[in-house]
């Protein structure tokens, strides 16, 4: 099993999501990879943060795109229920995160959608990965393609990052629409797909022996597309999906799923 820590390892209140501390907690588990979210700031720096605004997690509500990196770094990440101590956790830059990647691990980078900065963030990200000499084998670039603008962005990402793996993210799927997903992925030259787990869980529980799920996953491999499932926290379902042939699973509970792997190895 290959496990990806969703926004780092923030399970058990170890650290807030997408912080350096959460990311390092994930690397310490010796799992396959970590997933983060990136956005471009007003001064053309890449910040690691999920939401368009900071109010859910910090002590002040700012727009990420309309703030400088320095302004964002002055905020305190205290969490949704204000459980983390002030002044301890800060919004990291992508530069800081790149320095944490162990030589044999993989960073999944979700490029958040913003129509004003699409071309700029792609170019800046490309130059940054080259500057820090990050191997293309250590990076997977992901992003939603729920509309034409998002599709065009991720297609441009693949055109720019030819040697890197690029996975479009799909959320609204069912067992009958694999052809549509495959067509979109192939059209943009993707190397794999990133599929939301919620709908997969629904049709798995009602299908005897889960055979249709294996057939669903198999279709992607017939088109040389790897399959990542996000964000799945159920060990039982992870077993089913790995047995069905998925490549990787992104989870909010990497420690729990890692323990499951350890148990199965005996």
Task: Outline the structure in words.
- The structure is a single chain.
- The protein has 266 residues and is α/β, with parallel strands linked by helices.
- It has one domain: Phosphatidylinositol (PI) phosphodiesterase (TIM Barrel, Alpha-Beta Barrel), CATH 3.20.20.190.
- 36% of the residues lie in helices and 18% in strands.
- The protein is built from ten helices and nine strands.
- The chain has helices at residues 20-28, 69-73, 94-98, 118-131, 148-160, 178-187, 197-205, 211-221, 235-244, 254-264, and strands spanning 3-6, 33-40, 46-48, 106-111, 139-144, 165-170, 192-196, 226-230, 248-251.
- The protein has an eight-stranded parallel beta barrel with strand order 1-2-4-5-6-7-8-9, surrounded by seven helices.
- The two termini are 14 Å apart.
Notable traits:
globular; 266 residues; alpha/beta; TIM Barrel
- Average pLDDT across residues? 90
Order of helices and strands: EHEEHHEHEHEHEHHEHEH
End-to-end gap:
14 Å
The largest β sheet comes out as: 8 strands, parallel, barrel
- Taken as a percent bin, the fraction of beta residues is 15-25%
CATH topology label: TIM Barrel
List the quaternary state of the chains.
single chain
Annotated CATH homologous superfamily = Phosphatidylinositol (PI) phosphodiesterase
The level of helicity is 25-40%
The CATH class is identified as Alpha Beta
According to DSSP, the number of beta strands is 9
Within the largest sheet, what's the order of strands? 1-2-4-5-6-7-8-9
Counting structural domains, the number is 1
Helix-strand category: alpha/beta
Task: Name the poorly predicted regions.
Answer: none
Radius of gyration computed on alpha carbons: 18 Å
Shape: globular
Number of helices, counting only DSSP H or I runs of 4 residues or more = 10
């Amino acid at each position: 099993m290959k496990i990806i820590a969703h926004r780092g390892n923030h399970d058990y209140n170890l650290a807030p999501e997408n912080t350096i501390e959460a990311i390092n907690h994930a690397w310490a588990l010796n799992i396959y990879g970590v997933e983060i979210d990136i956005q471009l700031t007003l001064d053309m720096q890449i910040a690691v943060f999920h939401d368009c605004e900071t109010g859910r997690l910090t002590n002040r509500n700012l727009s990420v795109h309309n703030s400088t990196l320095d302004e964002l770094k002055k905020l305190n990440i205290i969490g949704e229920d204000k459980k983390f101590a002030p002044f301890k956790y800060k919004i990291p830059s992508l530069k800081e995160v790149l320095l944490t990647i162990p030589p044999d691990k993989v960073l999944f980078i979700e490029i958040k959608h913003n129509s004003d900065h699409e071309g700029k963030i792609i170019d800046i990200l490309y130059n940054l990965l080259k500057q820090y000499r990050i191997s293309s084998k250590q990076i997977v670039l992901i992003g939603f393609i729920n509309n034409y603008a998002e599709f065009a962005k991720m297609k441009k990402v693949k055109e720019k990052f030819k040697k890197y793996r690029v996975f479009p993210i799909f959320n609204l799927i069912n067992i009958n629409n694999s052809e549509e997903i495959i067509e979109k992925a192939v059209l943009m030259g993707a190397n794999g797909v990133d599929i939301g787990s919620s709908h997969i869980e629904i049709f798995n529980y009602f299908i005897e022996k889960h055979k249709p799920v294996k057939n669903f996953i198999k279709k992607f491999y017939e088109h040389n597309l790897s399959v990542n499932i996000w964000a799945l926290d159920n060990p039982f379902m992870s077993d089913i999906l790995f047995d069905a042939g998925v490549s990787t699973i992104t989870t909010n509970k990497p420690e729990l799923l890692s323990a499951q792997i350890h148990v199965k190895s005996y």
